[in-house]
Amino acid sequence: MNMNTVLLENIKNVYRKISSAAIRSGRTPFDVKLVAVTKTVDILKIQEAMELGVRVFGENKVQEAIEKITSIRNEMPDYAVEWHFIGHLQKNKAKTAVQLFDLIHSVDSASLAGELNRQAEKIGKVQRVLIQVKLSEEESKYGIPAEGCMKLLEEVSSMPHVKIEGLMTIPPFFDDPAMVRPYFKRLRELRDSAAKGGFQLPELSMGMTHDFEAAILEGATMVRVGTGIFGERAAKEEKNSSVV
Ligand SMILES: *Cc1c(COP(=O)(O)O)cnc(C)c1O
User: Fold this and answer.
1) What is the Å distance from ligand 1's center to 162 Cα?
2) How far apart, in whole angstroms, are the C-alpha atoms of residue 210 and residue 225?
3) pTM for this one?
């Protein structure tokens, strides 16, 4: 099989699993958006995925994304592709992030949101964001603890150029996806209790290659899948990306 065939099979496989899990969760396949994670993936392969129908891509480093997004927008201007930022965002990259990304999944402080608000105002944009929530001690060091979530929602909701569309989490890794389900459930419950406090947050970004079906069963509306579509990343790059 050539590369394109492998890519097509992977994409079909992921969509098949998304559809089946969405239906099992009492929803439709249209309720779950696939974010194809393209960190370390080269431009040609991303363009192949676009030609195969993938329309939403996720990057985790601003610097790496600049060249990719700029040249893809230049070379394929007719493709209505969405770019999502899924990594940790430093405040000094907020300006570039606002220029590049349709949705930023990783807002975890009022000061970062404030900087995004300032930069978005300058270019007349309303920046769509998700709040990244940290649900356990051992997981990634980024994200706001669940206890701080309501206060952050209140602070960010007063910013006219930032629009909060939902919550995101990166749970700890378990070999058995069943073990991670309680974390996905907690993010959904947090979303539901925020709704009682007056914050409508439709999107739940949770689930990666090895656990996205469990995430969908707990209500994920966006799954972030890299390896399952593009194959294993080089070990060196993987190490780098786990540090971000
Ligand atoms: C890399 C990454 C993913 C995708 O991981 P896979 O296991 O390759 O599917 C999802 N979310 C975030 C935040 C990532 O950094």
Assistant:
1) 24
2) 9
3) 0.94
